[in-house]
Write a structure and sequence with these properties.
The complex is a heterotrimer of chains A (about 270), B (about 250) and C (about 220).
Chain A (H helix, E strand, L loop, with lengths): L2 H6 L3 H17 L10 H12 L5 E7 L5 H17 L3 E6 L5 H14 L8 E6 L4 H9 L1 H4 L26 E6 L5 H12 L3 E5 L4 H9 L6 E3 H12 L4 H33 L2
Parallel strand pairs in A: 1-2, 1-4, 2-3, 4-5, 5-6
Helix pairs in contact in A: 2-11, 4-5, 4-10, 6-8, 10-11
Chain B lengths: L5 H18 L7 H38 L5 H10 L11 H37 L19 H19 L7 H41 L8 H22 L6
Chain C lengths: L1 H22 L5 H38 L5 H20 L5 E2 L2 E2 L1 H19 L1 H12 L5 H16 L2 H6 L2 H37 L13
Antiparallel strand pairs in C: 1-2
Helix pairs in contact in C: 2-3, 3-4, 6-8
Classes of the chains: A alpha/beta (about 270), B mainly alpha (about 250), C mainly alpha (about 220).
Chain lengths: ~270, ~250, ~220
């Protein structure tokens, strides 16, 4: 067996080890390379910046623990920004397994920013039905969510004063890891109820949302951990996403090298065999 | 330094242990992984059942009926109950009414909204930028590739959209001009799939980064270093399992 | 009987489908009120659908335990995990936290479900790397184009890539914003046309597989 052949049939656990080390070492010894801000992420940031104080900002945390590393930092950065701008923050989720996480992150950021539940922010919790929840919220928010996560009547929450449906929302961002996510919020929400919509999503979904970005159907897109790192840089509060970018760099480089090596061995083998 | 609450320390040990059990799959499929996998399914199903009961039955049905007398909500409950007749073979046909309702309504809601959002708006945005070439009194054409809104990019997009659609919809043997268009479509598709792969790699690596960040956090002395001790324990267990597996003939299980 | 079992469900689909498709174009208050009520109903029915989806596992694993088939111990773990979570969850009134304090249900969620689900998906990182090494070869011109685009995007989306090859950021941004956008747009239009056609087939009873449950 030639070297190329042996290398192409290498035990996959060696590759696993390389990837493991490329992730672990930069996390233990970070370098902190600068992160360039893309226009996609700036779209969301600029829109929140332009909102007057006390505007209603709706954040739908549409993901579960499977996508936590990518979307949790996005949610934290967005909430910090919204609270700093003194917006009225209303949060919810369309993903049942994301409920506990959404509750935790909203409570944590609100506590850190000194915000009061009910007056400055609210967490409506989860409701089943995906598209039905969005349409129902567009028709009558209190019909879709008669009570919030803790069971309090939503009609009694001062943070929702003057808000009857999605039409009264100043800006809405869906952080989606699949369906229902950003696309559903457009089709069943913005299409009819005409609110401003921004998106955040996992890396896997990001390329698929570019057509909506181009057509202006969403006015910004935070894609994956990289997007989260950009947002953290924009608000000047670096967190887990920025900390992970060195590891992201190292693993990408490792995969590129693996792909190059695999092609070199493949072509040398093809040449040997004529 | 403030001392961590007891439940957080126990939690860190449990979370680290379960994380390592799943990671043990990377060595090979083994009973530790299977155990964690089944526990994951069990806990997730239990969680969904509790949340659905609390949200749907308690908050969306019982409370509005008791507090506001919204008895009309018993209709969707009845439809939902019909759905559960799937479990009773003789009455399973009744579940068709429930499915007929949700599928029919879903289809009805989707048609106009999809046409408006994803067909008309997308076609419009493919053509509209090209109309701006002719200004009120002169022709302007921006060539800047790096500006996504430039006219040159608008033409590339039109080319991409039409060639890919042509490739999808005309699945005949292409020849002549058709062949050239279809090949252009394939080229565009490959570039987009490549970009998709790049982003997928990014996403998958991010998930690993997230889990390893937690493991690093739990290697701290304040938690009692569960990552260190449980890693050793997992490796030891895998070693023992491997030895036992070798001692037994392959057809023993 | 055939009417009740077969034709009436198809009639319900036809009527609800046409009604809600038409509703979009009729902004009359009565029509809007109907949409509000019906979507609320759909929310509630959605909850039952979710329960139907997850409980299908019950039977399968119960049979395995009863017959003590190979691996029945794992099914037992599944059952214990599920029943334990349900018991703790009901005791905590379905809440992960009460006024910021974590409940026992929240503990199960945070320290069991989150790491388990997170790690299940994190191991994919290793497999995508292995797959890239094993099968990402420039065997044809198309495969080479795919490979080059992937490498550019992988470089351009991380700080180290942009640092080593400054142009990679701009090029990957152009690929995503222009070339990728056009393809995804074509796919979106194509898939949407397909979805609309399927919806019409469902409404008019051409596509009936969703009815399932029985021969008639």
């Amino acid at each position: 067996m030639s070297l190329s052949e042996r290398m192409l049939k290498i035990d996959r656990r060696i590759i696993f080890l390389v990837i493991g080390l490329c992730t672990l070492l930069p996390l233990l010894y970070p370098v902190g390379l600068p992160i360039k801000i893309s226009s996609e992420v700036r779209g969301v940031y600029d829109h929140i910046e332009s909102l007057p104080e006390q505007s209603v900002f709706l954040l739908s945390i549409d993901f579960d623990p499977a996508s936590k590393p990518e979307l949790y930092p996005q949610a934290i950065a967005l909430l910090r920004h919204a609270f700093r701008k003194h917006l009225r923050v209303v949060t919810m989720t369309l993903w049942v397994s994301g409920t506990g996480m959404a509750d935790q992150l909203v409570t944590q950021v609100a506590k850190e920013m000194g915000k009061e539940y009910g007056t400055d922010y609210a967490f409506l919790g989860w409701s089943p039905g995906g598209q039905a929840v969005i349409i129902n919220m567009g028709q009558d928010l209190y019909s879709a969510f008669p009570s919030d996560y803790s069971g309090k009547s939503t009609k009694d929450l001062p943070v929702l004063d003057g808000v009857r449906s999605l039409k009264d929302v100043g800006y809405m961002v869906s952080l989606g890891a699949g369906r229902p996510g950003v696309e559903e919020w457009y089709v069943f929400g913005k299409d009819k109820y005409k609110f401003d919509l921004g998106g955040g999503c996992t890396g896997v979904m990001a390329p698929g949302l570019y057509p909506l970005l181009r057509s202006g159907q969403i006015n910004g897109l935070i894609g994956g951990l990289r997007g989260a790192a950009e947002y953290e840089s924009l608000i000047g509060q670096k967190g887990k996403a920025v900390a992970g970018m060195d590891a992201q760099s190292a693993t990408h480089l490792a995969i590129i090298l693996l792909v190059i090596m695999c092609n070199l061995f493949y072509f040398s083998l093809r040449q040997q065999r004529g | 330094m403030t001392e961590l609450p007891f439940e957080s320390i126990v939690g860190a040990w449990v979370a680290t242990g379960l994380t390592l059990l799943i990671f043990s799959f990377l060595y090979k499929d083994n009973p530790l992984f299977k155990l964690a996998e089944h526990l994951y399914v069990g806990v997730s199903v239990g969680y969904v059942i509790v949340k659905t009961y609390d949200t749907v039955i308690v908050h969306l049905v019982v409370k509005p009926i008791v507090e506001n007398g919204e008895f009309a909500l018993l209709i969707p409950v009845a439809i939902g109950m019909l759905m559960l007749t799937r479990y009773v073979p003789k009455a399973a046909w009744m579940s068709r009414y429930a499915f007929a309702f949700i599928v029919g309504m879903g289809a009805g809601l989707a048609i106009p909204r999809t046409v408006s959002s994803f067909i008309l708006k997308q076609v419009e945005d493919t053509i509209r930028p090209l109309l701006s070439v002719t200004g009120p009194d002169s022709l302007t054409f921006s060539m800047n590739l790096l500006n996504p809104a430039s006219h040159l990019n608008a033409i590339i997009i039109l080319l991409g959209v039409s060639s890919v659609l042509f490739y999808f919809f005309f699945s005949i043997e292409h020849s002549g001009a058709g062949k050239a268009v279809a090949r252009t479509g394939i080229l565009f598709l490959m570039i987009s799939f490549g970009a998709g792969f790049g982003y997928t790699v990014m996403a998958r690596m991010s998930l690993l980064i997230g889990r390893l960040t937690d493991l690093i956090e739990f290697s701290d002395a304040s938690y009692g270093r569960p990552t260190v001790w449980l890693s050793l324990l997992t490796i030891g267990a895998l070693f023992l399992l491997a030895r036992r597996g070798r001692a037994q003939p392959p057809d023993a299980h | 009987m055939i009417f009740l079992r077969r034709q009436l469900p198809l009639l319900i689909t036809l009527v609800t489908g046409l009604l809600f498709a038409a509703q979009y174009y009729v902004p009359h208050p009565a029509s809007e009120q109907m949409l509000t009520s019906a979507t609320k109903w759909l929310q509630i029915v959605g909850g039952f659908a979710l329960i139907l989806g997850v409980t299908s596992l019950f039977h399968q694993h119960a049979v395995k335990i009863r017959r003590q088939e190979a691996g029945w111990g794992y099914s037992l773990v599944l059952y214990v995990g599920m029943l334990g979570t349900i018991a703790v969850g009901l005791w905590a009134n379905g809440k992960e936290s009460v006024e910021g304090t974590m409940t026992a249900f929240g503990w199960i969620y945070n320290y069991m479900m989150v790491p388990l689900q997170g790690t299940m998906f994190a191991i994919l990182a290793f497999f995508i790397a292995s797959a890239a090494y094993r099968s990402f070869r420039a065997k044809s011109r198309e495969a080479a184009v795919l490979l080059v685009a992937a490498v550019i995007v992988m470089m351009g989306r991380v700080p180290l890539g942009e640092y080593l090859i400054p142009l990679s950021g701009d090029v990957s941004s152009w690929i995503l914003n222009v070339l990728n956008s056009s393809v995804r747009r074509a796919i979106l239009i194509g898939v949407s046309l397909g979805a609309v056609a399927l919806s019409f087939k469902i409404i008019f009873g051409v596509e009936r597989s969703y009815l399932g449950g029985g021969k008639e």
